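Exercise 7.
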Amino acid sequence: MSTLTLGQDPHGTPSAPGDDSSTGSAPAPGGAVRNRGRDRGPRRPRWATGLLIGGVLATIAVFLVPLYWLFSSALKPHQQIYTWPLRWIPEALTLENFTQAWNSAPFDRFFLNSIITTSVGTALELTLAILCAYAFVFVEFRFKKVAFVLIVGSLMLPGHVTLIVNYITVANLGWLNSYAGIILPGIASAFAMFLLFQYMRTIDKDILQAAEIDGAGHLRRMVTIVVPLSSPMILTATLIVMIGKWNEYVWPLIVTSTADMRTLPIGLLFLRSQEGYSNWGVIMAGAVFVSLPMLILFFLAQKRIIGGLAAGAMK
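Solution. The predicted structure, written as tokens, is:
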């Protein structure tokens, strides 16, 4: 009597490596192999999938169509902007609108003012936010919870509530129409502090206690341990604060009175007053001057912004 060895059929023929007869998988009717993996959940109905895709496309259109119209109108000749029906694809491209906008308003000075106020204001605001968040997480002092609740509670107040008080304070200090008057009232940010506070809470305090035993003070622990570990959220907060300061309009409009101290958003209003409501190609070119730097920054750093916020939420 002959014995069957593993991997052979009754006739002695070796089984193929992928043969289902050797793995014990029962073939389904019709020769198909039954899937023993994890069963998938119920499929979404086709009408629900269609609604989802339509909603996504509509959302994309709401955001992208105005941007496309802005940039295309800035590159169109004057007569093509007012044609009907609308011409979505320009027949000819021109840079005349940008040249005229640059010559009609001192955009070189507007750019300089925006760069100074945005960079210095962001650096000061993030420095204060890091110091404040570190104190609330790693330093014990009296009334810490009360102070934290008051600072976070300030997020519920609209920014326009403090305009009059800030203006009177800046006027009494003699900072009207100056960089100090534009920058200093906005360097205390409860939003950036709260983001960093939530992230610093996830840092293991044993690391800081070991550094304290080695003789490191609060400043050294913050600079050498906490700040490097919190760098993803610091970068996210920096980008959010920078975009907000670049686009700030109301406060610089109130605290400045001459064109040489205006920032870019106010410079766009100045350009509109120069050109009126008829030369929209030039006004669109000025809007491109204002929005393009932050659009480039956002598209280059959007993964870091979303990643930092998601990391803070998950932790």
